[in-house]
Amino acid sequence: MSIASRILAAPAALPLLLGCGPESGPAAPKLQAMSFANSEWSAPVNLGPPINSAANEMNAALSADELSLYFVSNRAGGLGAADIWVSRRASLDGPWGDPVNLGPNVNGSGIEGSPVVSIDGHLLFFSSDRPGGFGLNDIYVARRTDKSDDLGWGPAVNLGPDVNTSGFEAGGFYLQSAEDGSANLYIVRGPNSTAIDIYVAPVTRDGETRGPAVPVVELNDPDPAITDAHPSVRVDGREIYFHSSRAGGAGGFDLWRSTRPSVHDPWSVPENVGGTLNTAVNDFQPTLSYDGRTLIFASARPGGLGGSDIWMSTRTPSGH
């Protein structure tokens, strides 16, 4: 399978947030996210250069302060077939700076993908097919002390056998919790990069696993050949977005959504998010901002700069 095909097929194989200013207090992100929950998404906008280029860009995720954008690209200047890059801006309404490669503590000679930064800013989860893993593709974590230093990540560590197997694991989303061992690391797993399902594993606030990953059965299509991938969970744990090749979509991959009343309840039957976000081409790798207002995803739709670009949609608070 070509690199381009692997990029499109799954979030780890190259495998994917602007909002209101942060409020104070630990409950603020959850309250903000809930205020946007039932609003309509705007027409997606291409992020343009310097984020997008003639190469493939995808797998984007914002830091909690929304001043850093992490994404994956196979543009020139990388260390391998596809690397994780970061762009920084000085303010929420400022322009994005030139992307910088995260360097050899994170990137290797193969394919790195699906970056996600924890809400406290100290953990970076990502996936890689580098040598020394358990299987085809594994999930790793890198740590930093200074959450404002986008190039301060230490050497990446494999998450181990609770999460990684001899098959294919890729990212997802880390719903960091104050409660150690809660089921909060959403990943995908399968025998290859396309026949994959959504799983969840318990991980501590320090990025240590506390038990095996288990399938989220209500989100996965019963056909084992279907791709259900790149889950992104709202910070209060009640809304999830992912992409899927299941029946009922508009293109090869579409964006889908599910909700639940609380973190103790099962997810609802997934619903296609509709024509505002989905097209007849591949729309994939959705990532929610921590305030719940912004959705960033990858798409090969017309109007882009390369094979796949990063696009952004926003929604306003309910009742506004």
Briefly characterize the structure.
This protein is mainly beta and 320 residues long. It has helices at residues 3-9, 28-35; strands at residues 45-46, 57-62, 68-73, 83-88, 100-101, 112-117, 123-128, 138-143, 157-158, 168-174, 183-190, 197-202, 214-215, 228-233, 239-244, 254-259, 271-272, 283-288, 294-299, 309-314. A hairpin with a 5-residue loop joins β14 (228-233) and β15 (239-244).
Topology readout:
Blueprint: H1 3-9, H2 28-35, E1 45-46, E2 57-62, E3 68-73, E4 83-88, E5 100-101, E6 112-117, E7 123-128, E8 138-143, E9 157-158, E10 168-174, E11 183-190, E12 197-202, E13 214-215, E14 228-233, E15 239-244, E16 254-259, E17 271-272, E18 283-288, E19 294-299, E20 309-314
Task: Characterise the protein shown here.
- A 4-stranded antiparallel β-sheet has the order 1-20-19-18, with no helix packed on it. It has a 4-stranded antiparallel β-sheet with strand order 2-3-4-5, with no helix packed on it.
- It is about 5% helix and about 30% strand.
- By secondary structure, the chain is mainly β.
- It has one domain: TolB, C-terminal domain (Neuraminidase), CATH 2.120.10.
- The protein is globular, with a radius of gyration of 17 Å.
- The protein has 2 helices and 20 strands.
Notable characteristics:
5% helix, 2 helices, 320 residues, globular, mainly beta, 20 strands, Neuraminidase, disordered N terminus
